[in-house]
Structure formats: structure tokens, C-alpha cells
Design a protein that fits this description.
The complex is a heterodimer.
Chain A lengths: L5 E7 L5 H12 L6 E8 L3 E2 L2 E10 L3 H13 L5 E9 L1 E3 L4 E9 L2 H18 L2 E7 L2 E6 L3 E4 H7 L1
Parallel strand pairs in A: 1-5
Antiparallel strand pairs in A: 2-7, 3-4, 4-6, 4-8, 5-7, 8-9, 9-10
Helix pairs in contact in A: 2-3
Chain B lengths: L1 E8 L1 H7 L3 E7 L4 H11 L1 H9 L3 E4 L2 E2 L12 E4 L6
Parallel strand pairs in B: 1-5
Antiparallel strand pairs in B: 1-2, 3-4, 3-5
Helix pairs in contact in B: 1-3, 2-3
């Protein structure tokens, strides 16, 4: 699969039209050998540690977040069996159930598409400078890395 | 000779100080480890936040090691581990 590959990545405020993305990826990659499309959508949880979530506030360090997102998409699409990669990470205030991250991978076969989508997800979570505040019924928490939570109340205690 | 370096703060660090950018006095051509030391000294609340979560320094958006030199025009940010997804 050559230079006609589809590689896109962006930090976005709004939702993605999944049907449009799927249609575009399939139509642009079928002719270069793709036959599988894996998609992953991460959405905001409504319940964390027994408390209800009001919203998540995502902030990206730009332009570095967009640049890193594209770098990951480009690097992972170098695989000869990958025909298309489209990654979107949303920022701003998101309510429970709202999509926060989308990953689409068009590849030669299902195994490659699934594995590549998972790998891209793990890389995005670790490498892209995006930070989030979780607002819950029991208070606000800064989410650090993949799961540590620091209550905001602890920060005011420091002063 | 010393220079004032602007440092962008994110997540709990910005919240602790109450600002998304601070300035710190650093020797010209100082290192990342010295920047963290100066920040902790000038902003005691940051020092405490650093003890809650070990900070990462990004120079021009790229993760920097403690002994990396900071050039005058660099964009410097102090961040916790990323929380995307």
C-alpha cells in the first residue's frame, strides 16, 4: 500500500460524523488493498468510583498536541498493511456519554486493523499533551496519566 | 548572567499556582533540573504540587531530561503525565 494512504489526525471541539469518516476511509482505501476497518470510540463515563460525573474538561497543549497526534498517525501508517488512519481527540467540556476520542484504522485484514487501533490508542493516551479535570458529585479531580486522581481540594490545602 | 524564563503550566500545576504561566529566574543556559529547582523555590505551592505528582518538563513540546540545557528562546512547559483518552 503506497503513498495514496489516508492519514489524518486532529484535536477538535466538536463531534465526528462517524458514518462520513467510515464512508470516506472505505472508499479511499478499498482500491489500495484494504478490506477491514476497525474503529474505537472512547466516551465520558457517567460513574467513577461510585460518584456520578458531571463533566470532563479536556485541555490540549497546542500546537504540540496536534503535532504529536499527527506524528503518531503517520508513524503507525508506515506499516505496509495499513491503508488509512484517522485519529481525533476532543477538547473542551464533555458530558457523560459524549465521545472524547475516535480512532479509525483501515487495513489489509482484521487482525492488523484491531491491533493497530489499540496501539494508536495507547500511544495517544501516553504521548499527546492533553490534560483533564473530572467534575464529579463528590468534588473535582485532576486526572493524572491513566487513572491517578488528585482532588482539587488537596491543592487548596497546599496554599 | 541570569535570564527570566516563561514557563507554561498545565493541569494541577496551573491550578495550584492559580495561573497558566509563570516566570522564573534562571542562569543563562541553565538546565532543566535547575529550572525545576528555581520554580520550587520561587513558588512554594508548586514545590508541594511537585511532591504530589512528579513533573515533566517539555522544551518546545518535547520531553526533556534533567540535564538538558534550556536555550533562551525555548518554549518551556511543566506538565504531569498525559491524561488523554
Amino acid at each position: 500500500m503506497g503513498p495514496e494512504k489516508v492519514v489524518r489526525a486532529e484535536v477538535a471541539l466538536s463531534e465526528v460524523s462517524v458514518n462520513d469518516v467510515v464512508r470516506e476511509l472505505v472508499s479511499k482505501t478499498a482500491g489500495i488493498g484494504a478490506g477491514a476497518l476497525a474503529s474505537f470510540i472512547g466516551f465520558v463515563k457517567g460513574l467513577v468510583n461510585g460518584s456520578s460525573v458531571v463533566e470532563l474538561e479536556y485541555a490540549a497543549y497546542e500546537p504540540h498536541a496536534s503535532k504529536k497526534l499527527l506524528e503518531i498517525a503517520e508513524e503507525e501508517s508506515l506499516d505496509e498493511d495499513v491503508a488509512g488512519v484517522y485519529v481525533v481527540h476532543r477538547v473542551g467540556r464533555l458530558k457523560p456519554g459524549e465521545p472524547a476520542i475516535y480512532i479509525f484504522v483501515a487495513a489489509k485484514n482484521r487482525g492488523k486493523a484491531f491491533r493497530k487501533a489499540e496501539r494508536i490508542l495507547e500511544r495517544v493516551k501516553r504521548e499527546v499533551p492533553i490534560y483533564k479535570l473530572e467534575k464529579r458529585s463528590d468534588g473535582d479531580y485532576w486526572v493524572i496519566g491513566d487513572g491517578l486522581r488528585i482532588p482539587r481540594s488537596k491543592l487548596s490545602d497546599l496554599k | 548572567m541570569k535570564q527570566r524564563v516563561k514557563v507554561k503550566l498545565f493541569s494541577l500545576y496551573a491550578d495550584a499556582v492559580g495561573r497558566s504561566e509563570v516566570e522564573v529566574l534562571l542562569e543563562l543556559g541553565g538546565r532543566v533540573s535547575e529550572l525545576l529547582y528555581s520554580l520550587a523555590r520561587e513558588y512554594p505551592v508548586l514545590s508541594k504540587a511537585f511532591s504530589l505528582v512528579e513533573p515533566i518538563v517539555l522544551v518546545n513540546g518535547v520531553r526533556a531530561s534533567g540535564d538538558q540545557l534550556i536555550a533562551g528562546e525555548s518554549e518551556v512547559a511543566v506538565v504531569p503525565p498525559s491524561a488523554g483518552g
